[in-house]
Every structure is written in C-alpha cells, then in structure tokens.
Amino acid sequence: MKPLLVALCLLAPPVLADGCPVAPDHSAELGALLQELKAAPNEMAARGLSNRLWQLWSDAPDEPSQTMLDEGMAARGSYDFARALDRFDRLVGYCPFYAEGYNQRAFIHFLREDYEAALPDLEETLRINPQHVGALAGKALTLLGLGRELEGQKALRAALALNPWLTERGLLKPLPGEEL
User: Fold this and answer.
1) What is the pTM of this model?
2) Domain residue ranges of the chain, discontinuous segments joined by +
3) Most buried in the list 10, 14, 55, 165, measured by CB within 10 Å?
C-alpha cells in the first residue's frame, strides 16, 4: 500500500498556494514568438503572433484557475467590472504565482481609471514574467495616465523592444536629448 501512495505522490503535479499547481511552462514557445515578433514583416503578421502570446499567457495552471480567468474575462467583456474584479481577486488568491491573474486584475483597475491600483498588479505580473509584453504596455499606459511621462515612455520602450508592432507605439515621444 505504501509504495503505491509514494508512486502517486511522485506522479502528481507540484501544488502550491491553496491547491493551485505550477503554471504551465511555455517559456520556450514564448521566447520563439518574441523573436518572430521582432522579425515580423508587417503589422498583420505581428497581430497573429501577438494573439498566440495571449493564448499562452491565458493558459491557467488548472481547471479551477482557468474557470476564474475565463469568468473574469467574460465579465470584463460585458463591462461587469465588479464581477471581473472579484474573479481576478479569487484567481490571484488561489494562484499567487500566475502572472495573468495580476495582469487581468490590473486591466480592470486601468479600465476603471484607478491607475494607482493597477500599477502594483502590473509590477507583480512583470516580477513573475518580465517579458510579458501586455503588462509592459499596460504599465506604460498606466504611468502615462498617472502623469509620469518619463517613466511611461521608458516602459513603452521596453515593451516595444519586445514587440515593435504594438499599437501603443503611436504614443512614443522623444526622451530628453533623444530624437525619434
């Protein structure tokens, strides 16, 4: 009986937080997509690659976390920001190491123009996934919304270094002593 229990424990996925397993590791595919984005010949090609990035970022660690993410995104889509925020709060509580939970919660705060609340979630997203282009662009927009122009422009440059085709590129302004 004991050997069977040990074998089952060894085969089970690692579990953290309140039962949430480790998020899927898509780092190799994400890295390849980011390289393809830098070499994309046009905006249409880049849009398809960006959509694939979002699919990977939105691949939650397990079924309960995927349900919370999907419900939150559906609520956001119908402008039910209170429900969306509730779902993302639950997701972050359940899977505190899953970057997209923080990123989506930040987006709700951003949409509500609560930039001060959005910024810590964007920072946590980027701590977990430093190459999250969506969070970098969101951080740039949030900082600009807060009137922190220089920091916003620097965050925008970091996002554009990963994806030069972002629509936010139209917000790029020269830094002091720089020409575009």
Assistant:
1) 0.86
2) 26-166
3) 165
Which CATH entry fits the domain spanning 26-166: 1.25.40.10, 1.10.10.10, 3.40.50.620, 3.40.640.10?
A: 1.25.40.10
Question: What is d(CA 85, CA 144) in angstroms, rounded to the nearest whole number?
Answer: 23
For the chain (180 residues), the mean pLDDT of every run of 10, in chain order, is 39 51 92 95 95 96 97 98 98 96 98 98 97 97 97 97 95 84
Residue 52: per-residue pLDDT: 96
CA torsion sign for 84, 86, 87, 89 is positive
Q: What tokens were used for 163?
A: 């994806």
Spell out where the chain has E strands: 15-16, 20-21
Beta carbons of 81 and 108 less than 8 angstroms apart: yes
pLDDT for the residue numbered 103: 98
Token reading at 63:
């079924």
Contact 116, 100 (CB under 8 A): no
Angle between helices 99-111 and 115-128 (to 10 degrees): 160
Distance separating alpha carbons of residues 77 and 133, to the nearest angstrom: 21
